[in-house]
Design goal:
This protein is about 35% helix and about 25% strand. The protein is of the alpha/beta class. It has two domains: about 5-135, HprK N-terminal domain-like (Udp-n-acetylmuramoylalanyl-d-glutamate--2,6- Diaminopimelate Ligase, Chain: A, domain 1, 3-Layer(aba) Sandwich), CATH 3.40.1390; about 140-300, P-loop containing nucleotide triphosphate hydrolases (Rossmann fold, 3-Layer(aba) Sandwich), CATH 3.40.50.300. A six-stranded mixed sheet has the order 11-9-10-17-19-18. A hairpin with a 3-residue loop joins strand 14 and strand 15. It starts with a strand and ends with a helix.
């Protein structure tokens, strides 16, 4: 996912107290590698293996080195060489004074310069998590997501099959809504798929015949979660008496989302079935599997042992 300096600044401005020193018209530059680099060796003129695709961070060490270079011409030459590498932007930490040569070369090469009061290591450590999150692969998924007993469950199915009504029943049972009808998914730096709601629709649900409701106002703030890892996908489909549904749980299915394989359970929706309860049990059963307890496999092993004992007799 392409990330611009402007997008990074929008998310980082408040938590890191970032401000634009110069280059506000050039914030559209692309950060091709979602990481940070301290250009220590680059300031000496050594650019082999220089990570020019990353945001450059100058702390006390870099600025002190520039100050002790001696004459202004040498500083200008070194900074010009750095800016010619087409770096996305430069961030100065500790609210240090920006050398005029740096401002001049940044303006000449259209490189934005930002400033933060945080110390260098703290800024890099915290901002790395943020920029990795911003650059993570994303997709929008047609489905309703809930947290059920600590499990992130994404419920999908054709329009009108009852996803929102099932979610409403589960919220009334004490579980939490993450998103209704449309879920934004991203792959985090641990490889897990995380789901959350779009900012415009967060906290709201659409119930056919009732309209739009504000979930926390009706059920309290504990009825909502901001985001959750997707542990299980539940696919709802109309009941078909001729379909061969899994009745043992031995046939484990998965669905690929953003390159990750997520466990998949298909539940037929028919008259008289308490689907909300079935979805709840599916989530708890998946949680047991994650803890190493697979009821279907255990029963199968017991049956095989019983048959083996009978055969020996």
């Amino acid at each position: 996912m392409a990330l611009t300096v402007a997008e990074f600044l929008e998310e980082a401005r408040d938590p890191f107290e970032l401000e634009v020193v110069c280059g506000e018209d050039h914030l559209g530059r692309i950060v091709k590698e979602p990481a940070f680099n301290r250009p220590g060796l680059a300031l000496t003129g050594f650019f082999q293996y220089f990570a020019n695709l990353r945001i450059q961070v100058m702390g006390l060490a870099e600025l002190t080195y520039l100050k002790h270079l001696g004459d202004d011409a040498t500083r200008t030459e070194r900074l010009a060489a750095l800016m010619r590498q087409r770096v996305p932007c430069v961030v100065l930490t500790r609210n240090r004074h920006v050398p005029p040569e740096l401002l001049a070369q940044a303006e000449a090469h259209r490189v934005p310069v930002l400033k933060t009061p945080l110390i260098t290591n703290r800024f890099i450590n915290r901002a790395t998590l943020l920029i990795e999150d911003l650059a993570a692969p994303r997709q929008k998924y047609q489905g309703t997501m809930l947290e059920i007993k600590g499990m992130g469950v994404l419920v999908e199915g054709q329009p009108g099959i009852g996803k929102s009504e099932i979610a409403l029943a589960l919220i009334e049972r004490g579980h939490s809504l993450i998103s209704d009808d449309l879920t934004v998914l991203r792959r985090d730096h641990f490889g897990a798929v995380v789901g959350y709601a779009d900012e415009l629709t967060r906290y709201h649900m659409e119930i056919r015949g009732l309209g739009i409701i504000h979930v926390p106002s009706l059920f309290g703030v504990a009825s909502m979660r901001r985001e959750k890892r997707v542990d299980l996908v539940v696919r709802l489909e109309p009941f078909d008496q001729h379909a061969d549904y899994d009745r043992t749980g031995m046939c484990s299915e998965t669905i690929e989302i953003l390159g990750a394989d997520i466990p998949l359970v298909t539940i037929p929706v028919g008259a008289g079935r308490d689907i909300a309860h079935v979805v709840e049990v599916a989530a708890l059963n998946q949680k047991l599997k994650q803890l190493g307890h697979d009821a279907a496999k255990e029963l199968d092993e017991r049956l095989m042992r019983a048959l083996e004992r009978k055969r020996r007799k």
